[in-house]
Design brief:
Helices cover about 55% and strands about 10% of the residues. The C terminus is likely disordered.
Length: about 210
């Protein structure tokens, strides 16, 4: 359902056309990505009411997908843990929340951010800074679900609300991802070349033996 399925389909399609396929399995803890999130989060926390809490969010998934072994929740937590560690956040100063669940009868990953906001307000937390690290660009789930819906819920509850920026086209993060692409494709090319050379050597040895 998450990146693994994309890779499975990509590999199958590439193999059917005899095209090499190289994959980046994860960049959840990419240094430039963590630094981008931490830098903006630190700035927004400094402007938030004292005692505000950080919510790291991503798009929810049906629970059945996770039950099948999808690493998506673990990837989100690894990013959140790295960012929280970079800022020295206390364990009770941040948590994970899910958002934008589909409108289907089956259970989806929770808790939902709207419910979390209500719980935090009830416990006396004065504000929330949301780090939507599961989204790399500004789109509907960020601009509406957070900037409008979640923000209004927080306002109705009487607590402050802010959100960190999405990566979009940040040069440092894009550059780091480009480096990963170059590295993985270079390794794939080298592996393919080695395999081809080994095959050629094997063929030559066979021909020599036959002669």
């Amino acid at each position: 359902m998450s990146v693994g399925q994309y890779h499975d389909r990509g590999r199958a399609t590439a193999a059917a056309r005899d095209v090499p396929y190289a994959a980046i399995e994860s960049w959840a803890t990419e240094g430039a990505f963590v630094e981008f999130l931490a830098t903006d989060l630190e700035r927004r926390l400094a402007a938030a009411p004292e005692g505000s809490k950080v919510l790291f969010t991503a798009h929810s998934l049906p629970e059945r997908v996770v039950a099948m072994g999808d690493p998506y929740p673990a990837e989100l937590r690894s990013t959140a843990t790295q960012v929280a560690g970079r800022l020295g956040l206390a364990d009770d100063g941040w948590q994970i929340a899910w958002q934008s669940a589909g409108r289907t009868p089956e259970p989806w990953l929770g808790p939902d951010i709207l419910d979390v906001l209500a719980d935090l307000a009830a416990s006396g937390v004065p504000g929330v800074v949301t780090c939507a690290c599961g989204f790399v660009a500004d789109h509907l789930e960020v601009l509406y679900d957070l900037d409008l819906e979640a923000s209004k819920r927080a306002s109705d509850l009487g607590i402050a609300f802010d959100r960190t920026a999405c990566v979009n086209d940040d040069a440092a993060v894009i550059g780091a991802l480009a480096d990963r692409v170059v590295a993985v494709t270079s390794n794939d090319t080298a592996t393919s070349a080695t395999t081809t050379n080994d095959a050629a050597t094997s063929d030559a040895t066979t021909d020599s033996g036959s002669a």
